[in-house]
Amino acid sequence: MNPLISTPSTPEPAEKDILNDLQRTVSASRLGLFLQCRLKFYFRHVLRVAKPRTPALHVGSAVHAVLNAWNKARWLEQPLTLKQAHDAFMSSWADQPEGPIPWEAGEEETEKTTGWRLVDTYLRESHVPAGLKPDAVEVPVQTDLSSQGLPVLIGVLDLVQRGEIIDYKTSSTTPNPDKVIHSTEIQTSAYALLYRHNTGKQENGIQLHHLVKLKNPKVVINTLPPMSLQQELRLMRQMEAYLNGLQSGRFVPSPGMHCSSCEFFKECRQWH
């Protein structure tokens, strides 16, 4: 290629086209964010304002990655050793696709140790038995809900075992069971719907495995029953609100306790 001839760059899509694309599909995380704060959704998914991954998200991502590697190895019936799991953790920790993490002095090594201790605690306590083959691991699934006037629902199931959907979460405090059921309902209902549409069967239940970042790490498992009809209908109405909101284009802030950790705080304060 002649170095004097520049290759034209691909133009950024227009906001109208982005909004149209967002109406074709929806994920649990995108739906939850939209219902939490429309302006934050706008910054992240419409304007696509790039932000570095926060330290807490980086720890969660590294833990999540090594547990997925552990489960994939179990599915292949080639369980990882603890050393191999540690190597997978270190590899994931080094991966920073969104740019350098804004660590404070000495914070990275502390958080890295914390992250591995979470994984080590989880595996040593055999919350996922090495010899038990999963039904599915990290499977991308979708279901077309256009017959109900809704977008295609998409998602990735972390782990399905004995007909139960299992999802991993990291937290700094011990979860309250009642609040967890409510705060994760969009995600758990979406996963249940995806499971049913793709297998033709009802899930045996849903497990939320919380890896809690305490001085002495612990694992808290919340077991939920299969999705109820009421929960399914709530999810449908929430997806309707998502579509209507995107079509109206009213992206307004929703001030609350969640603002203290929002990466778009400065942008939000400048909104008018």
Structural class: alpha/beta
Mean pLDDT: 92
Largest sheet: 6 strands, mixed
Question: How many structural units, i.e. domains?
Answer: 2
Descriptive report:
The protein is of the alpha/beta class and 272 residues long. The chain folds into two domains: 37-133, no CATH class; 134-246, Lambda Exonuclease, Chain A (Alpha-Beta Complex). It is built from ten helices and six strands, in the order αβαααααβββααββαα. The chain has helices at residues 15-24, 28-36, 38-46, 55-75, 82-94, 107-124, 177-183, 185-199, 229-248, 265-269, and strands at 25-27, 136-144, 152-161, 164-171, 205-212, 218-224. Strands 1, 2, 3, 4, 5 and 6 form a six-stranded mixed beta sheet that branches. A hairpin with a 2-residue loop joins β3 and β4. α2 packs across α3 (38-46), α2 (28-36) packs antiparallel against α8 and α5 runs antiparallel to α6. The radius of gyration is 20 Å and the shape is globular. The N and C termini lie far apart (47 Å). The mean pLDDT is 92.
